[in-house]
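Hey, can you fold this one?
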Amino acid sequence: MKKLFVFAVAFIAFTGFTFSGKNETVANNAATYAAAKVAHDFTYFRIHHQSKKNVVLNWGINTPAGVTCFTIERSYDLGEFYDVINEIPCNSAVKFSWKDEGIFPGMIYYRVACHMNDGTTHYSPVETIRVVQR
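Sure. Predicted structure:
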């Protein structure tokens, strides 16, 4: 009896056999999620001072498929509330750059929102920069 139990467990483990058929649904959902996730994955997001008056933002994505536009957001209050400061269309490129020329001294928090064709929005990591004087 013990050998039969071990065989049954091994059979299920190696073949993925289920009694309900839900395994296929889970696999299909995971594949769909993985394909959708690739379009909006940020490969990098960096910011730097270009001068005392400018901050340059650079970011990249894996693929522009399904991306309609990007909005650049800035916060001066520890990243709690963001203001949209510009919108950039996705022009089939994978690398983007934008210069913020309207900065004030203090800690500035930036993020980029990626707007998809299906209405969803995905955000880059938040980057901060300290501006001492204007």
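The radius of gyration is 23 Å. Let me know if you want another pass with a different chain boundary.
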